[in-house]
Write a sequence for this structure.
């Protein structure tokens, strides 16, 4: 009597049995790069924190550089998505300005996001990589300010400086959480109520910078 044998599909070499979503791998990598910097993290460490073999991580990202770029791009993409949404809106300019400022604040309100950007902007090699990723955001925000001025929503000024000042407001508060928490007298700057309060303050200050409203 022959045994009943069930033919099961074989996994392709190098493909994990329970694949982890690419977005989750980027999230884990983002946290590690933010905490330890590019040179302080290996692919083996990231794989371990993601709960998979290093070979499986290389299946998704052929090099550490590729994973690092994906981590930076994910941070920038979150902010860009918010900006693009409010640029496409047809509501009042000042309302769109407020919502954009608050939305970007919420988008960067995570320890790994703001700290990763600030860490890399402080190194020559990282500044080039992060600068390339951020330039598109800076250009889009400046164009938003230009269009608003053309529509009479706020006066014309040097929007390059306004954009860079706004960028600093978004980034440093969450990239230096210990300093911000101590200055405000709060336990956690990433607590929802603190994030919302910060979002409102950033919107108010951006209005003032532009002379809007």
């Amino acid at each position: 009597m022959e045994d009943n044998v069930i033919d099961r599909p074989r996994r392709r070499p190098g493909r994990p049995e329970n694949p982890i979503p690419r977005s989750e791998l980027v999230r884990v990598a983002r946290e590690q790069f933010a905490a330890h910097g590019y040179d302080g993290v290996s692919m083996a460490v990231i794989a371990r924190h993601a709960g998979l073999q290093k070979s499986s991580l290389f299946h998704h990202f052929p090099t550490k550089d590729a994973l690092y770029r994906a981590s930076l791009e994910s941070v920038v993409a979150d902010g860009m998505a918010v900006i693009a949404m409010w640029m496409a809106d047809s509501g009042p300019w000042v309302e769109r300005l407020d919502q954009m400022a608050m939305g970007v604040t919420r988008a960067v309100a995570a320890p790994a996001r703001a700290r990763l950007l600030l860490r890399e902007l402080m190194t020559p090699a990282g500044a080039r990589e992060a600068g390339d990723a951020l330039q598109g955001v800076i250009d889009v925000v400046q164009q938003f300010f230009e269009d608003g001025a053309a529509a009479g929503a706020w006066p014309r000024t040097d929007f390059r400086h306004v954009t860079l000042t706004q960028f600093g407001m978004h980034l440093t508060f969450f990239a230096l959480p210990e300093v911000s928490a101590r200055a405000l007298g709060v336990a956690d700057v990433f607590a929802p109520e603190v994030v919302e309060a910060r979002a409102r303050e950033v919107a108010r200050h951006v209005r003032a910078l532009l002379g809007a409203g």
Remarks:
- The CA atoms of residues 126 and 176 lie 18 Å apart.
- The chain has a mean pLDDT of 84.
- The chain is about 70% helix and 0% strand.
- Residues 124-150 form the longest helix (27 residues).
